[in-house]
Amino acid sequence: xxxxxxxxxxxRTALEWGLVDELAPRSRLAEVVASRAAAMAASSDRPAxxxxxxxxxxxxxxxxxxxxxxxxxxxxxxxxxxxxITITGPPASEGQPxxxxxxxxxxxxxxxxxxxxxxxxxILHLRTNELELGTWVLRTRGDARRVLDHDLLLFDNYxxxxxxxxxxxxxxxxxxxxxxxxxxxxxxxxxxxxxxVLLELALAADRQYILDGPPIDDExxxxxxxxxxxxxxxxxxxxxxxxxxxxxxxxxxxxxxxRRCFRQQAGALVRGQGSQRFAHxxxxxxxxxxxxx
Length: 293
Hints:
Helix content is 35%, strand content 16%. It folds into two domains: 11-39, no CATH class; 61-292, 2-enoyl-CoA Hydratase, Chain A, domain 1 (Alpha-Beta Complex). A hairpin with a 3-residue loop joins β2 and β3 (72-77). It is built from eleven helices and eleven strands. α4 packs parallel to α6 (161-178). With 293 residues, the chain is α/β, with parallel strands linked by helices. The chain starts with 10 loop residues before the first helix and ends with a helix. Strands 1-2-3-4-5-6-8-11 form an eight-stranded mixed β-sheet. It has a three-stranded mixed β-sheet with strand order 7-9-10.
């Protein structure tokens, strides 16, 4: 049964029911809004003065079916209606900021801020301009340990206003991915760096597939696909429902998340069959041809 009110829910009733925060007459509406905005600004821990960070225009290069930024690339496949997205981890050739002053000096060039800006821009671009590409394949490339180190540097400096803003920017972008109406598939391969904050990309996907064996193009390699958990996966980047992506994945199974396996695995590489608790399917070596298609 659905009940409605012809006149809607007005003023005092809306306030009594908790549907609005405050009731203001038209003559005082601007004053009340300004007062609330000032009160919210005063509660912020951002510095009242000092240097900020200039966000330079993103260097988005579009060449045919390829969209490229510094750390994010996308290959568009109109025939198969999919996008192959690769996020590159922190480069080994560059030092990582370790203090608030160093984060500020790095500005918009730091890996975390640059990557989240590029990924956010790509998500919006694809959602707006590539409506027929209904499947997004998510990959990562790089050193998982460097990603974990970057996570620690973020959280070690969380009290710094800029680092705090970067963490919130990451939260918003991951939430944007959560509610993107596309089929998201994470492919976890040798050379991937699905660790910490980048593992959140895989957890946001509808399906996760990990290759159990050497790289497809190098049968003799000792390199194996793995995922790595960190404190970043236990609530630092909550979904819109307030739960972490692990908690949402294993809803009402807190023991599984907290004690049985995941907390124990934080910081350790989880490979092949051991990752079946996270991935929807593990491809054994004999199935590598299927994995590559």
